[in-house]
Design brief:
This is Transposase. Helix content is 33%, strand content 18%. With 200 residues, it is of the alpha/beta class. The chain has one domain (3-24, 48-192): Nucleotidyltransferase, domain 5 (2-Layer Sandwich).
Length: 200
């Protein structure tokens, strides 16, 4: 059965898509306006390998406002053998999502190895409120969170010279907060995948 058909078969549950992305202090470039003959210059203090990772689920349910939940994490040291999110971080994010949404959850995620860690599998198997589906390999076009990352990179993070990791975190949070309150953006990211949330 196709993923869209399986998701449609689950009624009364929040449909959640989850994804993790990394953002570095090297600013993404974007087009901008300037006076003719004056090329805009963004000064950067040097290349930095410091990054932050963000895990974010987008949440959809017929008859409810679409939601975005996110957790940033600085990649400043190994945690459970990983610089980015560990399986415990994903577990805690799922618990927070369940508390905020207060209902059944159908989680759709990619095949990242940490998503299939033994500890996380054990946790999800013991939760009746949680059902998990995995996206096919190399199918980012089916995940609406990819649209969130695109909005963030083309908007709030483009052409910005980050002075410190805190500056990067602050700017990223500001962009995500803006997106959180724009349900039309969240719904648009879902529509880009060819899916919709039909009224109950």
């Amino acid at each position: 059965m196709a993923l869209r058909e399986r998701l449609a078969a689950v009624s009364g549950a929040w449909r959640i898509f989850e994804e993790e992305a990394g953002f570095s202090m090297t600013p993404p470039q974007a087009r901008t306006w300037s006076q003719r003959g004056r090329t805009p210059v963004v000064r950067v203090r040097g290349r930095s390998r410091r990054r932050i990772s963000i895990a974010a689920p987008t949440c959809y349910k017929p008859g409810h406002r679409s939601r975005l939940i996110y957790r940033p994490r600085r990649d400043d040291g190994p945690r459970d053998g990983r610089k980015s999110f560990s399986w415990r971080d994903y577990r805690d994010l799922l618990i927070a999502a369940h508390q905020q949404l207060g209902g059944l959850i159908v989680l759709v995620r990619d095949n990242l190895n940490v998503h299939k860690a033994a500890g996380l599998r054990e946790f999800t198997a013991s939760r009746e409120w949680l059902t998990i589906y995995y996206l096919p390999p190399y199918a980012p076009d089916l995940n609406p969170v990819e649209g969130i990352w695109s909005l963030l990179r083309r908007g709030w993070l483009s052409n910005v010279a980050f002075s410190t990791p805190e500056h990067l975190v602050q700017r990223t949070r500001r962009g995500l907060r803006h997106i959180q309150y724009r349900t039309d953006l969240l719904d648009g990211c879902l529509a880009e995948t060819g899916q919709t949330v039909r009224p109950a």
